[in-house]
Amino acid sequence: MVVFAGQGDARRSMSLLWRADRPDGQDRRPGPRPALSVDAIVTAAVAVADEKGMAALSMRAVGERLGRTAMALYTYVPGKDELLDLMYDAVHAELPTGRPDTGDWRAGLTDWARDTLEFQLRHPWVLRVSQARPVLGPHEYAALDTLVRLLNGTGLDAAVLRRLVGTLSHFVRGCAGTVAEARQAAAATGEADEEWWFARSALLGEVAPDFAERYPSLSAMEAASAPQPPDPSADPASADVPHLEREARRTFEAGLGVLLDGIEAAVRRAGAR
After folding, report:
1. pTM
2. Which residue(s) pair with 129 in the sheet?
3. What is 111-179 written as a DSSP string?
4. What domains, with CATH codes, occur in the chain?
5. Per-residue pLDDT of the chain (273 residues; tens, 9 = 90+)
6. CA-based torsion, 141, 60, 48, 25: positive or negative
């Protein structure tokens, strides 16, 4: 299920997103402190989405978590569309932005990619928010600014950097989506990864006995690079990681290395010119 941000009232959404320019991020009118706040509603909404997924998010569900009715929330947030924008931007505050400038852009981008992957896995619902229309909030911009600053260390021109921002962001997001789905697969289907693969790979030899002849390149690659089982002695925690997640994480590390190698090659070419 893809969700598009920015569907609420533009002025209300942008005003709420950028409300943090006030000292405490709230309307400082005189009088008793209100029982609810925008921040409290956003925090509760994020908790609902983290625990139950985007499909469970509603003003009613958020209200119940706060011990209020849905109607009580509308004084602070106009509706679910505006709430989604606020949630999306709020969680992006978790991403590190004050990375020291060590002069090693490759190490910085590696840390950025790994941090972003883990952030998206903590909040897998953010992967359902389409990138076609950004939220345009302060924390989303801060995260983007951090990535651009790291890429500036390559010395490549702005036109190239713009494309690298998209390439790296899409790569990490795609890998995070695969890991998130791998975590959900067993619970959703009632079948562990190993059971699923064993049952179907055994049948594949029966229904397609000429598989290797029909797909020689794929078969050769699979034969030469069969996934290795985890080594509990080296990493005890790896034994509890689903097979699909292990493979997705290995793909992430390998792919990230290749992407950074490509950026290094571009830097060398630019220097030669």
Report:
1. 0.87
2. 3
3. HHHHHHHHHHHHSGGGGGB-SSS----HHHHHHHHHHHHHHHTT---HHHHHHHHHHHHHHHHHHHHHH
4. 10-92 (1.10.10.60), 98-192+242-272 (1.10.357.10)
5. 789 999 999 999 999 999 854 444 455 555 555 679 999 999 999 999 999 999 999 999 999 999 999 999 999 999 999 999 999 999 999 999 987 778 899 999 999 999 999 999 999 999 999 999 999 999 999 999 999 999 999 999 999 999 999 999 999 999 999 999 988 888 889 888 888 888 888 898 899 999 999 999 999 998 898 766 655 555 555 557 778 899 999 999 999 999 999 999 999 998 876
6. positive
d(CA 92, CA 99) in angstroms, rounded, equals 15
